[in-house]
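Hi R.,

Here's the chain you asked about this morning:
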Amino acid sequence: MDTYLETERLVLRRFTAGDTDLLVELDSDAEVMRYLTGEPTPRAEIEQKVLPEILARYETHPDLGTFAAHEQSTGQFLGWFGLQPTSEAGTVDVGYRLNRSAWGRGYATEGTRALIDRAFNELGMARVIADTMAVNMKSRRVMVKAGLRFVRLFHVHFDDPLPGTEYGEVEYAIDRSAWEAGL
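And here is the predicted structure, written out as tokens:
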């Protein structure tokens, strides 16, 4: 296993070409996809687009990407965490997608904090950002618990908007000095 990061309860590893079924299962839950696409991701899209893009990112940005998350004690697949490049130098975007069975157990906060720590302490980043739909209150709480702070509300045009899109998107962020100060 190509381990990227370990926490007290999580192991994050690089995805492999053999992980299609894990992603299909994760993205087949309409509730998991509620604030993302609003519908399950078709298997063909995961095979032909999603997984190849994840694997290609490891080549173009070796220290960044989307990482399969497993429970440390059981090895159970929980979902994924990501640390993605942005168009702004020194800034990365943190995110996650977890199976419903992992919700409410602190995994999202634990994994997000660990990725933020890695971004600043190992990768030399200056800033970490995250965004979600304004109505996604559970993810917004995770962002705050992980140390990110509200930056702005913004609106994006979607040709086929999800319910709640009219309330906009939110961005949260933290910079290195605030993270080091424990703010």
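One quick note: The chain is about 30% helix and 30% strand.

Cheers,
M.
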